[in-house]
Hints:
This protein is α/β, with parallel strands linked by helices. It has two domains: 3-122, Rossmann fold (3-Layer(aba) Sandwich); 130-289 and 324-341, Dihydrodipicolinate Reductase, domain 2 (2-Layer Sandwich), CATH 3.30.360.10. It is 36% helix and 24% strand. The protein is built from ten helices and 15 strands. Strands 14-13-12-11-7-10-9-8-15 form a nine-stranded mixed beta sheet, covered by helices on one side. Strands 3-2-1-4-5-6 form a six-stranded parallel beta sheet, with helices on both faces. Helix 5 (83-93) packs parallel to helix 6 and helix 6 (107-120) runs antiparallel to helix 10 (317-336). The radius of gyration is 21 Å and the shape is globular.
Amino acid sequence: MRHRAVLCGCGAMAKGWLKALTESDFLREKVEVVGLVDLDQATAQALAAEFKLHDIIIGTDLPAVLRQSRADLLFDVVVPAARRAVVAAGLAHGCHVLSEKPMAATLDDARELRRLAVDASRIHAIVQNRRFIDGVRRIRRLIQSGSLGELTALHCDFFLGPHFGGFREQMDNVLLLDMAIHTFDAARFMSGKDPLAVYCHEYNPQGSWYRHGAAANAIFEFSDNVAFTYRGSWCAQGANTSWESAWRITGSKGTLIWDGGERFEANVVSGREGFLRAVEPITVPEAEDGADTHGHVSVIERFIGAIDTGTVPETDGSDNIKSLAMVFGAIDSARDGKRVTIAA
Length: 344
C-alpha cells in the first residue's frame, strides 16, 4: 500500500522532513506527499516549489486539505502551541499522525491526544529521532549485556550556544521543553528505566539571547534506584558538547564515557586489591543487527512499518508521554523549588 501524506507546518523544520522522505528507497516507494498546509499559503507554495511537489493540494485549512487530498497520513510540523488542534484534526479525519516533538504543549494535552488516538484506532507517534543514532543504540546494548554490572547512574552534560532566531528565542522553558526531551528520552531508552521523580533548577544566564529558561540542572530518580543527572545550557559558547550530550554511565562493575560522537571509553574493575582497584577496557558492542541508525529517516520508516504491520512503533505516544512527563516534571520542580513526582 502506498500512503498519501499531508504535511502541516511548512517552516524550516519541514525541509528536514521532506529531505528524509527522499533519502530512503523504502519511503519513496511507500509515501506520496499529496498536500501541504501552512497559515501562510505562500510559505507552503514556496516549499512545494523547492521540493518539486507538483499537482498537490496546498492550503491554510487543514481539515479541507485532508478531505480534498484523501490523505491517510498527517505529518505534524507545527509549533508546539498548535499541536493539539492539528493532531486532533488528523485523527478525526482518520489519519495516522507523526508529530514533531514535543508531543504536546502540556501533559494534559498529551493525555487527551493519547485518548483520541486510541478512540480512533490510529497511531500517533513522535519524531524522537535521536533514539535512532548509532551511539545510543550501542550504549543500550552494552547496558543490557550486563558488562557494566547493575546500572547505578547516568550523567550528561549538554552545552551549546545556537542562535536560532524565531519562536525558540521567545519560548518559556526553551531548553527543557524544546531540546532536553531528546536527552531525557535517550536516558530512558538506554537505561530501560522509568522516571519516578525530579528536582530541577532552571535559569536564564547573563548574556542569554533567549527570553526564558536557557539553562537547567536536574536530578532524576529512575526505577531500580538508578539516578540520572542533567546539566544543560543553550547559551554556553566556547566549548561545545555534541548535540547528543557528553555522557558518563556507571554500573556496579565499571563505567562508560561517551562524547556524543565517535569516542567511547569503557572500563570494568579487574583487580581485587588496592585503594583504587585496577581496571581493564572492554569493547562497546555494535548496534544490534538490523538496527535503524538513520535518525529522522528511521523514525518515519518505523512509523510506516508499524502502520503496515499493525504493530506499535517505538516512538508511539504511549511511550513518548513518559519522556514528556520528565520535561513537565522538571518545569514544575523548577517553578515550585521542590522535588516533583513524575506521572505520565
